[in-house]
Amino acid sequence: MRESERKNGVFANIKKLFSYRSGNGFPLPILPNAEQPLQTPTYDGSGQVVHPCVIDFFNEYGIDSWSGYRYWMVLTPYPNGQNQYENPSLYASHDGLSWIVPPAITNPLDTASGGLDKGFLFDPDMIFNPDSNQLWIYYRFANSAALRMHLIKINHDLTMTKPVTIMKQSPWIQQDNRHRSFCIWRESSDRWHMWGGGGEAKSPYNTYYFFSTDGLCWGEPQRVVNEDGLDPFQALGLSNWHMAGKPNKKERRVEFLVYSLVDRTIQRHLFASKNPNPVVYAECPMDAPTLFRTPLSSPVLLPSKSGWDNGHLYRCSFQIIDDGTGYLYSIWYSARGSDGQWHLGHTEGVIGSFYRGKNSDVSQ
Length: 364
Fold this sequence. Notes:
The chain is mainly β. It is 9% helix and 37% strand.
């Protein structure tokens, strides 16, 4: 495929993605934005947060609660973008909307001084390991000398292990950064999967897949592509920036909601001065984790025009709920307002992902 043909195809794809428009020309997302942000008590007192990862024990594991709560969430405070406060913090909830710090937990779980010279923490993700009955919280550390991934394990009695380093690159450059905003799926005790983005000094970034047999030692990154051999987000004129994933066992696929950056040239053509970087849907077969599809023709979420989240969106977390007729998506998303403050919102609804039906053979 010639480069001119590829660019024309990308332009057509993103025009299709944003083809549903409101009266003022702003593209319409599938789901509505949250009218108000959720209240999240932070150790620094700001209530400003970013980068959630949520586990719903009832929906994901058929367990009413774990250590007294149905929902658990890890995220980081981020008051007005100050990364010295961007330290992993743990929360729990009975309904997924009202969040508390459990009495036995002291936030933050780990700390760093902030800034690229001394280093900062960021990009938490969390899984439940039923073999050990623990929450495993992964997060990253970066300074000018090293890029690392750390792991903390939370026991059922809410005691925790000391942080350990499971990946390290030193020295490093941005091209080495291939697990930005990673998301992890534990398929079984000896099959662990991780996806992340990066690999370039500047946008557009690539998407990568890693495999592990224990969740600790990870293999070399493999490029994620679509059926045409292209990065699935670049093929839409986008760049994977922060992604989240959950398995859909009924459909034998892993689903992703990805906060993406719009290619600047295409953005100028389609949106003038607006900055509608979207959250988009992607999926891959469980048995082909490097082969992505982007089947939906509209963005799932966009910044609001005048609400608390009218600056830009960021990483989200979600649940896939089978209601017997289709899939309902419950989404927690972080966003910045035009006032520079970061908060967490919740929305839900049907986005149009393929539903096999109650009595269908899952082997088909």
